[in-house]
Backbone:
């Protein structure tokens, strides 16, 4: 599954990601959320429209009450934006979730100093075959993801220099090279 990195193919890319999210088993979480739509990013995530996610998106944030000042270009003033409380209050580097218990993880604009730790934790909680939608990444995030066992399967670059990546946790392989299947006894 490859996601095309050109703006003209964005609709095709979103459909592919929606289909991929339909195939995962576990819940979908967002670390550092909630990411809300605004006039510059009407869908919140550039690779997918949040209203098209096929399951409920659970938000995880260390802050219970999150506020941020955002520039209102039309009015020429800063406005205080209050975000809804997260579903789970936790540090993205130490999530209170079981090993391989999550089907997909969304993360947007994470601070550089915590990216390695968050990627390690995401790998721990992600089910085999699970997806990571990593918005506003930097090129070295690909190497960091690979180091923890995630592979890049798609993404896109924006003209502003920011990157969005889709990573996948590979399914374990058997000696024959095919994915392992659980035996029911």
Residues:
């Amino acid at each position: 599954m490859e996601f095309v990195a050109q703006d003209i193919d964005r609709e095709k890319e979103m459909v592919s990601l929606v289909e991929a999210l339909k195939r995962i088993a576990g819940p979908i979480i967002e670390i550092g959320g909630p990411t809300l739509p605004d006039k510059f990013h009407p869908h919140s995530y550039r690779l997918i429209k949040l209203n098209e996610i096929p399951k409920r998106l659970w938000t995880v944030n260390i802050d219970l009450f999150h506020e941020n000042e955002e520039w209102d270009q039309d009015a020429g003033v800063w406005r205080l934006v209050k975000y809804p409380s997260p579903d789970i209050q936790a540090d993205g580097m130490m999530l209170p979730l079981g090993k391989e218990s999550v089907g997909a993880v969304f993360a947007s604009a994470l601070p550089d100093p915590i990216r390695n730790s968050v990627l390690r934790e995401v790998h721990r909680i992600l089910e085999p075959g699970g997806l990571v939608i990593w918005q506003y990444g930097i090129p070295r995030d690909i190497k960091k993801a690979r180091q923890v066992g995630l592979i890049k399967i798609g993404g896109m670059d924006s003209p502003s220099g920011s990157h969005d990546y889709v990573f996948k946790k590979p399914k374990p392989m058997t000696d024959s090279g095919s994915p392992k299947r659980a035996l029911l006894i």
